[in-house]
Structures are given as structure tokens and as C-alpha cells.
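Q: Second attempt. The first request was missing the SMILES, so the protein and adenosine-5'-diphosphate are both included now.
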Amino acid sequence: MAEPVVELVGVSKEYQRGGTGVKAVDGVSLTVRRGEFVVVMGKSGSGKSTLLHLMSGLQNPTGGRVRLLGRETSQLSDDALTLIRRDGVGFIFQFFNLLPTMNALENVSLPLLLARMHPAKARERAKNLLDLVGLADRAAHRPDELSGGQLQRVAIARALVAKPHVLFADEPTGNLDSVAGEEILALLKDTQSRLGQTIVMVTHDPRAAAFSDRLIILRDGKVIENRDPRTVAGAAAGVAMETPRDLKDADPYEGSGYF
Amino acid sequence: MYGTLSRNYLLVKKSRSLITILGITLGVTMIVAVTLTNAAILSRYTTLLEGIAGRSDLQVIPHAGQGFPESFLDEVESVPGVETAVPSVFNAAPVFKGERQVNAAFYGVDPDRDRLIRDHRLEEGRFPAARREAAVTRELAAGLGLKMEDQMRLLSTSGLVEFRVVGVLDTRGTARGALGPFGLLQLADAQQVFGKIHKLDSIDILVSDHADKLEVEQTLKDRLSGRARVGTPLERSRDMQKLLDSIIFALSMAGSIALLAGSFIIYTNVSMGVAERRRDLSILRALGMRRREIMTLVLTEAGLMGLLGSLIGLAWGYGLADTLVRELAGQFLVSYGIQPSRVALNTTAVILGLAVGIITSLVAAGFPARQAIRISPLEAMRPSDLNGVERNGPARGLLGLAMVVAGVTFTAVTWPTDRMFQPLLLRAWGMAAALMLLGAVVGLPTLLSPLNRYLLRPLLVRIFGITGRIAADNLLRQPRRTAATICALLVSLAYMVTMGGMKTSQIATFDRWFEKTVGWDLNVSTSFAGLETQVEMDPALVAELELVPGVRLVSPQKMGRLILGDGDPAFLQAFDHRKLRLYSEYPMEQGRWAPAMDDMVQGGAAMISPAVSLRLGVKPGDLLPLPTPAGEKEFRVVGVFKDVTPYGGTVQIDRQDYVRYWQDQTSSNVAVLVTEKTRVEEIRRAILDRWGERMPLAVRSNREFWAEIRSQYEAAYRLMDVLIWIAVLVSGLAIANTLFASVMERRREFGVLRAVGSRRREVMQVVVGEAFSTGLVGGFLGIACGLVLQVYMVQTNELINGAAVDFMISWSTIATSLLVALILAPLVGMLPARRAARLDVVEALQYE
Ligand SMILES: Nc1ncnc2c1ncn2[C@@H]1O[C@H](COP(=O)(O)OP(=O)(O)O)[C@@H](O)[C@H]1O
Ligand SMILES: [Mg+2]
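A: Got both inputs this time. The predicted holo structure:
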């Protein structure tokens, strides 16, 4: 069994709203393993985004423990978490969230530059990534000159450029027409199968289930299903934490030939 | 409905509205303070003049300070149509009782005659009927603790003189005019104690009902031509306005700059409000709100903030005016023996403050309001993404350039070469400067792009790397807003550099001039010496000075104001040049000192300052006509000397001519040379001791005199400094505000940056980098503009008030400005930077 990249044990997130607590995520335990493509589905307001934020360390849980790349997020300083995000985690969002003043290539190289990689090298790597997402000819275009599908491709390239151990995607097709959405799903699937990229994707899109290795369904913050959509009889999430192993230094794309 | 929406907006964006209101408040504060100050000083002076004038139709007053012969009275009375002519003498002087001292205005009148013109009412007692009797106001009596029949001591030209209080005046009479400590003496008595024997300071005239006033005025002018001024009583207030003009102008400039900076804050905040509420506004549009209504909505908010800011500004301005008046009164009123009146809010100031505050707010909000009405109702349905980049065409740049060129051209074309500045032209130049500034604001956004590409971006990338790059890019996101912020800093720093440079230049010029020109060891005057009126020194006293052991030379100097042929005042100096040449040498601009002295000693000659030469178009060798009580006399100009006094120009004549034409033996002060320089202090003591109780004298050493004048310069600029720092404060507010605006608008981008791995410190760098760039551009442009403005002020100062100024750069001010620009701006930027760094990543990412 591949090693765990994200592990959640009894994780809850409670928001205070008007004096009463709302449990957006309620006692979730699950493990995402390297190379998996996990899809999280559920109705609007069921806690999908919150779960993603907890898994990626953007938010801390109010209960339970989150282990991201072998480190427990609630025990890390903001800077340490940021560095884990920078070097080991990629994000894509429903609204593509590219910086409007930068062209595609610059947007893609941003994480590398933040990590103080040499600009020429960062460019080179960013070019490869744009090539990977099929936008090599759009490198010099600014976000306002690209279509939605293209923007999301750039966002994917940016998310992948630092060779993250895990890619988190929150409704990446939510803002795209069905053709573009399909292409994005295919691209994500492609990165998983060709690069072995670990992906956790939140989506509404019913087609997404077919791409996933594992489907997690949430209702009112609770996991009501966690299974392999193809085998239907999904294995329950491993509750016991495995021995921590720092994955940060490992190259997740080792041997993939892309870089 | 707009009312509700507007109120909600003001409530919701409380902190931002506060900054907006504060920006307007500070600007309005300064405008109102300056207006009130001007009004308070002028109204005080005007009421003084009104009080003096009473019911008189016309007044005859001297061209220069020391009065005219009594015999003019007969001449005036003989003019047909003159029903009554009332002579008087006016002098301000200190009075003492025990330890107490009050400076008061004294009138020497013939009470019976004077009542034809002025209402003197007694509360108690009677009018002075004999020598050494006085009627005083309640205020003067209270100031000294006087009761009826008490004695008080008045400073006369030859020492302290005892006066008996025989009456207390009702302050509704003439005393109302002075509103302060004030006393009536018998005419002959006043003439005697103030060294004006057989002289008058004014003749007030009632024209008989059947005569034509204008005709009488003309006849009087013809008869007295060249010997005295004839006019309506209030013409004199014009002189005071002229004195006040240049200083008020400089102060209002500072006020306008603060207001301008404030308007940039409004612009930024309203445009941000519009940007933030695009969705709300487009929903309102979709629900059927018309463009005009949206416009009304946006402008109502701005108007409300403007109104609130102006109201607070009125209150603060009223408070600040009090300080200003006290500072300025020292220079303009004290020599009349009157204190400035309490500052009173007047309708002009209220209307001006409100109008300027509200109009500025509306205009500044007008631009974003225009954007608001262009919002399409469809926008609400469209998904939003990170906001893009505002683009600026070359048209704006050209427009800005055109405005700057127009301002420069106007200044160049109207540059006077053969005359002094008229206040009107000064105001027009102020407008031209405003136009240039506006041009800069309009054009700077276009300039910003190349500036960013070739200077800021490479620099920031060097310093901060990728975060610097983002900072540089962000500067161009809202170029108008960035430009407005830069301009706010630019103008306040430019003003700081100009004023600091002017101060340094003026003081240095004065220092050099003083070093060369003022060669006496001690200067003696009565303890009440001012520019407008003072207690002069009796010739006997001057003679006695020569008897003090250690005194080598005593040179009486007479100084006063003189109205020149062009109707404007100048400074008159009468020296004994036989003596002056022994201890002084003036730097000459035309002619040479030694030969000029030979001519001056002969009499009938005059030396003038460049301002007088310019005003009257006279050069060495020309004849300069001067009005004297003995008629117009011509003096041959023998030299033009460098002048540093700011009284509109100086005319220097020899004492013998002065005594002859003015029939005046008194002196304003006496230059004393000592036998041994080391004994100066001892000799000073000896002089003070000799007169002791008899007469309070002021004896200043060369150094003390120098230090006193220097501190006057510094005091004048201290006031300016306060205003400048307020302007800098507002521009600091503007920077912080703009950055807060950009942080809040782009919080999603900051969320993205955080999500892709920027640490808090790196996010801060982005914002601080923006602040740093604003400071850098604003600072350097500000310093450059400030220096240009200083060159221009140095060039024109002599044309404005007659004082030469040598151009000197104030390095300390430039260092301060750099510090403000390069340190304060990033420091101020730290506040919004912290906000950006502390944004909750998830919330920021979800923000629309
Ligand atoms: N910052 C917040 N404060 C309070 N409640 C929140 C906040 N964020 C999310 N919630 C609530 O938590 C629940 C789950 O939200 P979310 O994770 O965004 O759901 P989903 O992504 O599945 O639509 C919802 O009821 C939502 O209203
Ligand atoms: Mg969601």
C-alpha cells in the first residue's frame, strides 16, 4: 500500500454563528494515499470546501487531527505551514485566481520564484508545465486574454509546477462549460495516471466520479460514503495512523520523465 | 431610499469613512483658520480705523509716520465745503502702575471739538481738561488696577510721565473702535509727550451737507498735494491688507495643498466603494434604478462626508485660528498698542469652509461616480474574477501636459519685469500653480507606466525579488489612484522643500547682509519700538547718551513708513551718513558705496532698494520725488543697495534732509559705537542704569539684535511648519488609505499568494513595496518640484515684498523630505501590510 499523504482522524470544524455552533465538518476520518485520485462530493453546504481546507492546512480543525505530508498541521507555525504549501501542495479553485498582472508563464512560475528558484530555471520549468497542459503557445498571454478552460489549465500548471505531493482542487469545473469541464477532468486524470499525481478534488460534477479512485460523499459534514466507485464495496478508511514519514523531500514525479 | 443606502454605507465602512472625513477636515481646518486669521487681524485694524474715523467724511493723514505741521489745519478749514476739521494725534505707548504694564493706544484731542466727530461717552468723571490728565477705558483701568484720580506713568519720548485718571470712558464711544486699552489726552499734552509738538497725525473732516464730497476731496488733494494724504478713512486698511497679503497667501497655499491631499483620499475611497459595490449597484440597476439615481446615491455619500468633514474642519479651524492670530498679531497689531480680537466665526469663513469641503468632495467623488453609472445591470449575473488592470490612453497624458504647459506659459507671459507684484497677479499665479498640479495629477498615470518599467520594477525586483515585482505591477493596477496618492505626497513634500529652502535662504541672506551692514555695537531705543507706531526718542536723550563713559559715537536713526508716488508703502530710513559711513557698508547693486556716501552727506540725495527702483522706474542719477510735509521734494538717486527688509522697498535719505522737511528731531533708535568692544556689556549696563527708573530703554548688542531678527524669521516659519506637517500628515493618511484600499480590493489575490506559498512576510513585502514606490516617486518628484518652486519664489520674493533672497538649498529639509518619503511612506504602509498578511486565507479566497 502506498504511503499516506493526508490523514484525518476524527476531524471536526465548528463555526460559531449567532451563538450556536455549526459543524461544517463532523468527525471525519480518512486517509489519502500517494497516487490516489480522491473525489469529494456532496450537496452544497455539506462541508466539502471546509474539508479540503482542513486537509490542506489552510484551516485548523476544532477537533481531531490532520496530518499533511507527515506533519500535524495544528502544531505548525503559519510560516512552516506556508512552506509546506509552497513546496508540497498545489491548489486549484473554481475561480481560477490567477494574478491579472502576470502572463500565463509568469503565473505558473510564481510558486518557484517565491521559493527563490533561479528565474531562468523557473521559467524553463514553467514552460514545461504549460506544455504539459497544452498551452505552450499561450505563455505570453495575460489572464484577460484567455478563455475559462485555458485559465484553469494555467492554474493547473501553476499548481503542479512545484511538483506537489498532493493537488487540492475545489470545484475546478464549476465555472466552466461542460466541454471545457470535461477537458479539465481529463487533464487532471492524465496527470494522475502519467505522473502519479495525488489529487483531492471537490466537485459537484457527476462525471467526476468516473475519474476517481475513491469517492467520498459528505452530508452535513459527515462522511456517508467512502469507496472505490468501480468496486462499489469500498474499503473503510484506515483509522489507525501509520508511522509518520516525512515526504517533503521525496520527488513525487520521480521517474515520470516530465522534468 | 438613497438616504438609507448612504447611511448604511457610511456605517458599514466606518474606519474608511473616518479617514475620508479626516482628510477633508484637515484641509478645511487650514483654509478656515487662514481665512479667520486674516479676518480677525484685518477687522481689528478696520474697527480701529473706524473708531478713529468716527463720523468723518474725509481724513488728512501724513505720507510718512511722523505727522504733519499743525498749520495744515488752517489750510483745511479754509477749503470751501469743509464744515468741521478736527485735529488729533495718535500714538501707541505703554503705561505703568507699580509692576503692571499695559500697552495702549492714546489719542490727543480737543474733547469739545472731537465730539463733533466721535462719540466719547463717560462712564465716570470727565474729559481731560488740563495737562497730565487722561480719560481711559474700563479695560485699561482694569489692566492697571486704576481707579479715578489714580496716577499712571506713561512712556513719553523723554521718559516716564505721570498722568492722573480723571475719567473712565464708556466703551461704546471711540474706544469701541480700539476695543482694547485706550486713553484720551489733551491734544497739546499728547503732542508734547510723543515728540509731536505743533504736529498732527490726522485731521478729520465733516463736509457740509450742501457741498459735494468728491469736489471737496479734490480741492484738498490739490491744496495739500505731495504734503499729506487725503482720503476716506478706510483707505488705510488697504495698507494692512497688503502687509498681510503675502503671508496669508503662503498660508492658504499650505491649506489648499492639505485639501488637495484630502480630495485624493476621497477619490480613492469613493472609487473603492464603487468598485466594492459594483454588484450591489448592478443589482440596483437591474431592479430599475436609473443612472441619475445611482449618481445621486454616490454623490450623496460623498457630500455627507464632505459636509461632516467641513463641519469638524470649521471647528478645528476656529481653534487653530486662535493660535495663528496670536502668532501673527505680534507682527501686525502690537505696534498699535492693541491686542487682536477674539477670533470670530464669520459667514465668509463658514460658507467658504463648507463650500470648499463639500465641492472638493463632490468633485473628487464625481469621477468614480461616473464609473458607477456605467455599471451594467448584467454585471450582477456574471461571475466575478480578480479585477483586471485599468488602462490609460495617451490622451490623458497629453491633457495633463497641456495643463502644465498652460500654467507655465501663463506664468512666463505675465512675469513682471518692470513692476512689483499686484496681489491679484499673485492669486492668478496661485491658480496657475494649481493648474500645473492638476495637470500633474491628470498626466502622472500615463507617466507611471514607463516610470514603473524602467525604474520602479527593476529596483523593487532587485530589493524584494518576486514580491517586489508584484508590488510594482500593483502600482499600475489603478494608475489614477496611485498617481493621486503620489501627488498628495508630492505636493506636501514640494511645499516642505520650498518653505524650508526659503527659510534657509532668507536667514542666510539676512546673515550675510547683517554681517556686512550692521556695524554698530549697541542699539538703543525706547522699550516700545515697533514698525507701525512707537515711542520715539527725544534729541536731548540722544545727546545725553554721548555722555555715558565708553561711548565713542552716537548716531540717531529714524525709521518709518512712507507712501511712495505709486500709492503703496515703503520703508523710510533717515541716517546721519557722516556717521553711518564709519560703521556700515551696504552691499550695492548699482553705484558704489564710498562715492554714494559723499553724495548723501551733501544732502538732497537718496539711496534706494531694487524694489523702489523697480516700482518707480528710477536709477542712479535720476530724481526721486518724495512726498514730505513740506511738499514734494526731489532727491537724486545715488545708489541702489541690496535690501533684506520685507516692507515693499526702502528709501534712505540723510538725517539733515529729514529734519528739514519733516521738522522732526526725534529718533527711532540710536546706533552706538563703543571705545572698547570688550566693554560692551558694561556700557550697556551703564546706559540702562543711567536712565533706570526715569525711562525704560531697550539696549541690544549687535548679536542680540541679530538673534532677535533671526528668531522673527524662525517664528514666521514655525507657523508654516505646523501647516506643512499637517499637509504631510494628510498625505501619509492618503498613502495608508490607498494601500488599505488596494489590500481590501485584492484580498483574494493575497489569499492566492498565501495559498501558493507566500509567507506573511512576503505578503507584507508586496504592500510595503507599493508604499516604498509611492514614497520614492512622490519623494523625488516632490523634492524636484519643491526646488523649482523655490527658485521661482526666490526670484519673485523681491518683487512681492522687496526683500532680496539668495538661493540656498536647505539640505536638512531635503533630508527630512527624503526621510518622510523613503522611511515614513513604507512605515505607514506597514499598517495595511499587516492587514494583508493577517488576512484569513480561506476567507480571502472566498471573497468576491
Ligand atoms: N467562515 C464560515 N463561517 C460560518 N459558517 C461557515 C463558514 N464557512 C462555511 N460555513 C458553513 O459550513 C458549512 C459547510 O460549508 P462549505 O464547506 O463551504 O460547503 P460546500 O463547499 O460543501 O458547499 C455551510 O453550512 C456553511 O454555511
Ligand atoms: Mg464549496
